[in-house]
């Protein structure tokens, strides 16, 4: 058994380095394990004796006695003792290295348990003066909230022995990437108390998201093969027989046996252990009292959940998951750690053979074991999870929704920024400007920087100016003042003589030109020489970072800055030039994205300047620019801050005075020397004073965090420039502390002293290093900004300046008051206090005020937080090239508000503001206030401020709280980004953290739920999104910090790739519109109506709709007619039997080719003439009669692929008088889902016989088919190619009112229905279509659609025979094989009319988008096409048709010819664009009015506008009205309601097997309750509206002449709202009814100015009712599709009032979690709905029917039955 303490020193150092590499992410977990095992190999062979047993637990565990109970201690295998609450208290990273933590099980359990039985914990500071132990003693002793401040008495006597070990062990502490982030211990305690307080409340468990196994394997360190979505309440218990033993990977046992506070229940099995095992480690589960966390209704004696990864079982996994081998990781002990009796995982979900992603048929394959998944409660796994989510949401919220329902944005805005009447108000007097001391320039200080360099370079040329350390910590090169001077002169001379070619012209650099300085962070010496070279030449340097690696931020923002500054030359070093990205072809330096073309100039190896070259004779103006420094704003745009020469030298003088710099001092600099504090001190002020700077590159700091302290000790440095993270890192490097002496240090400048976490790092650093000579007055926090430079600085030594010597201060402030912008002192022990330290006083010669951060710059009150503004001779001058922003930032005149008394004494008191003086102040971007004695307190920055529901929160404060949520072992300390995003008019807080690689799924969720609670209770603000990303995934700044803007940008564009996401919109979003409530009168009407309507309730039959002639209160009633069929020739007027027509055609034109079938190559596969069709039909009739014994009126099922056999079989049945039912054949690749549907239709239609072709008959009887349908149970099956013995006698005579065929189809809601079509309907439908589309024998019509139901069937089989035109048939599956097939056919056969489906349009648009040039080469010309009708039963898909038209316009397609038809179950063709009708009209309606069942017309491009296009033109003989689906009242024009249709070709009722036609009876004979109450209509089941429209022949968009209605009109107004439109349309006033104006159709052009357009909005059954409003899924889906380019398809449905969004991810599985926040944001923003569940699935999972419509109900069933195999399921809280 090894303790690292017993290892030799060199091994310990190597181990520490390894740990550091792992924590930095420089080495993989696997490589780490390997190297570590190798290192420890020689020391592992020592025998383990009794001494092991007596090893005390390491002193960094806060061992607590669990309520003095006599249980055997709740001990994790890590030795982490657990209190009865189920917390584990571990300091953030114990000094044991992480892997040791994970692998070593050193302490015998009984031994440790015995220790934990010691008496109640008492106070005592354990161990070395570690920085974790800083909490002041005292306070609530029994509180479980402290980390490591108290140890049980059992440890007191061991302390002395442990101290040395403790110190040694700290050497292995992980040093994490803690870029300037550091947490306050006070906060830590507050967080723990807050969490403890919350713990008392019974908490419903939040469901944990489900991840697919492969995603789990990808996410850091998770080998748990967790079931895709399981939940412990709904899983049958199973046990493994005790003889099976499994070896667990060690980290699983250690990390997951303890469920720390199961707020979120992980998806795990219930354990089923016998009590006999309590002596084993399993004891710990039973100790954790489970009562507190189970949902309130569960009995306390439930077994606690067993938090272990499921074990591998012998069941085979499906083909896509390789069997998992659980291998043990390197083990230090030889004993195998065996565990018995855990449950086998449920792998049933993957047992089905791998499903092909076939959309059309996806989810009926529930294998047997899945059916048994439901337990006694009968709940599905998913449903249990959603139940949990619902219970969570039922919890009363702290902030109720404001009570209002409003459509418009102003109200949403007001709701987002509520004013709290109880908010504290500032009470102090108005502040006065604070003056810094007078600037006294020491005698002999050089006049300018150039003079300084010349003086020191000649007089003391050997004294060192700068030294840089190499990555090993050795001093490599020192730059003396002499060398600096000569090199800078060389550069200045070279730059003045070098000629750069800028395109054709030659240019030299003139004084005042701007150049870029591009140097790596480890080469300050070249940077300084180049900087002073530019100074000597009068050039303006702009130092920039060079992103060398792809993980850095995109450099294009910097490129914009370079372009705007007009920079063409970049100075760089040779080494840096070599590292620049080169172009592969030319080998030259590649042009970076967004960058201008640069000339690179290397500043080394330059010739000596000639004797006469004198740098001193350049006299630059003081107001000229000296340099430009880049800075970024909140949104991430990069700006250049221009600094004048006067400001630069003044600032150096002020720093010299404030810091008491003298010549020859040594400074150590850890900061970035290219900008801000690092640049001002180490490059500029140091040269002015002739000081020596030692630079420590960031790479060395990562490797040896204490190197800066060692340098101070070695060089006796007097000043040091650091950030608080360097103090923190230095504290952790305890092994180096013994040799350090900081007594020479007079100033330790903390550059980010303004951050809330800097206070505790300063305090702890001082407490540890005071013993090493550090003086308390040496620590100098300062505040700075690029605009103001140094805002304030605590003076070193304190005594010499004019302020009181003891001028340091700290304030304990109330965070709640700060969020309202007010300073209030809080008590020390308050949970919600923030402790701030001062940032010193105002700089010499500067004047400071604090002004309001919003609105005009009015002076703040003394107790008010505002933005700090400074005026002095040493601030920046402007943002380069941005005049507007410059004026608002650099030219601020603070205003003083005064009350003006009215003259006559009785008027109102006015507030007037006047400037306090002439001076212009500069905004610093820092928020704060001035304390007593002129001390400056900074409590945030303008960029880090988040205003959530009217209260201000500082990102840094939230980071501090997040960091204090222990245990920190789940995430990396400093790698946290907090920012806000604007969603639904308010800012929402997002927290992104980097997760450690060894953190399991449950642990990270445990941690996330604690963070939510901590932030909520301390800041009273909800976190909207909390995400964990894999290690090193947050974008970095060049010095290793987090690049916040870039992280935010990636988050918003969906390229951050988080490993875990928790969204909490339900608790954060409090400004949703109030749900609508029904009016009283309407509710009763709604109750009376029996229909399953969609909840349209606001047009009840009431006084508003009193009938006035044919108008409702001046508004037309919604009614429209197609033209009269009577205008056609006489033969069309009387109905004809289709069989008679066919026989007539066979006699009169026997050789006329009537059908042509094409194959996938576009070649003619088969043709049929009229006589061939007639003969084959006769033959099939004979076959049916002879072999099938079919009588007239019998039902025959036709199962054929799209083709000519289907036609012949159909007419064969009609000849016989039998009733055919066409059925789509089953899909050979997907039999087990498609075959049951086929069988169902055969059964439901009562077909006595099946007619088909040989391949399909074989398929029906195959072995594969037998698994789902027994082949013996089919009715008799006939082969169409069999020959009958006799000829068929004669065509049966049937009546017009007998059934011709049954039309079966499955609706999008999954309802299978068959409608009965009589011969009369069939004949009138054909007549109507023939008339509208002008079809006659010489026409060619191309059809590319499915011939099984609706209009597709009519076009394919009936209309060609009726009108005799030539039909060119293309089966849609052929187009999948050859996407250009349909278009090339149109071109080749010069087709004028074509009918297709949306599936075909989509396929062409997607597959051919890049092939237009090649199609042109093949001479494909679409100018011949006159009408292209998309056959659909839904709202026309405007976007898709527009894309299609735009794409193929290039091939001559006239965009006006594409239109959509509308048909439905009750009538297959209501609207079809005719041959001579005008193009479809578009209108824009307000989406928010639509969801309240109103139609409000708006202009194109208006917010919330939705483009709706009319569905073709009404067919001749069709009459359509709009009725309220609930009340059956007649609606007015432009009102939303159900479309009712009256036509001779309506279907004649449903044919259903169950005979329950009661419910659907009124679908075919509905009557209005107002108006013409005697007429019968068929109800289409679709919502829509009618609108009188001008037939514009030109512009398809809303014409300027159409007045738009105000986008909102209330329920009562909407009746009148459209009436003003009528004034424009003279026809309306002439003849109120549209019949007169439309009679004559095309014949009379004057009459065709107006027509009634039918606009379909969506199916009644599909409407989603949420929060009292009605949404159409397509609208939500369109929003979701737009939110990320990787979303291939999307479908939404509701389940128990939760909105579920399913998105198909067309990309890498690692991108799945990017979609969750984006989907949630988009739906909130566009529809004001909160998404409850986001399911990310593979492409092809959303099922789609043959018409290209989504089967949302199938999808829902598949989701609830857990058959989707999702990549990720996120449950939004």
Can you describe what's shown?
The two termini are 46 Å apart. Among the domains are: 172 residues, no CATH class; 131 residues, GMP Synthetase, Chain A, domain 3, CATH 3.30.300.30; 191 residues, ANL, N-terminal domain (Rossmann fold); 105 residues, ANL, C-terminal domain (GMP Synthetase, Chain A, domain 3). 28% of the residues lie in helices and 20% in strands. With 1773 residues, the protein is of the alpha/beta class. α1 packs antiparallel against α2. The strands form 21 sheets. It has a 9-stranded mixed β-sheet with strand order 12-11-22-21-23-24-25-26-29, with helices on both faces. Strands 48-47-56-55-57-58-59 form a 7-stranded mixed β-sheet, with helices on both faces. A 5-stranded mixed β-sheet has the order 6-71-70-69-68, sandwiched between helices. About 23% of the residues have low confidence. The longest helix has 19 residues. The chain is built from 52 helices and 71 strands. α22 links the parallel β23 and β24.
Give the low-pLDDT segments.
46-186, 219-380, 396-407, 800-806, 1080-1114, 1592-1648
End-to-end distance, in Å? 46 Å
**Helix vs. strand class:** alpha/beta
- Residue-averaged pLDDT: 76
CATH secondary-structure class of the domain at 445-635: Alpha Beta
Helix content: 25-40%
